[in-house]
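Appendix B, example 12.
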Amino acid sequence: MSSKNDLPAPESLGLQSGDTLLAIDYGQKRVGLATYALMSDPYPLPYGRIVVKDNKSLIEELRKIITAENIRALVLGLPHLTDGKATPMTTRIGQFGRQLVKTFPGLLFFEQDETLSSFEAEDRMKKSARYNFKVNRDELDALAASIILEDFLKRFPNSR
């Protein structure tokens, strides 16, 4: 069953099997990252986090990762209130997204609703032996980014 948020097949967007996507969970202090090799990885993998000094240094750190991991597309999490309304952070992240598009014109760029992704990441950690059933702040942002990427991939009907 498709929905209005479904995307066409990845190939029609310029993505091919094996292309790597990088999800970004942007925060004022920390940025969580996750990767997924399209049709190769079994699921999105938490990649790590970057402690934010300023957007310029963040962009440079992302540039290194994009090069090292041969990233083909960026998926930026965009927060909203549970009623779908934008917040001041939505605007700030939207501006950062425009900066990413300008800085990395050769990459595909997507936005993905990230509403409650950090809460879901906390919940998963509390239920997982991998995290000793506790919230691990050092890994929380990367897990939230992997949830953003999971939600993005769900928008491709029949592609996984």
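The chain has four helices and five strands. The CA atoms of residues 18 and 40 lie 6 Å apart.
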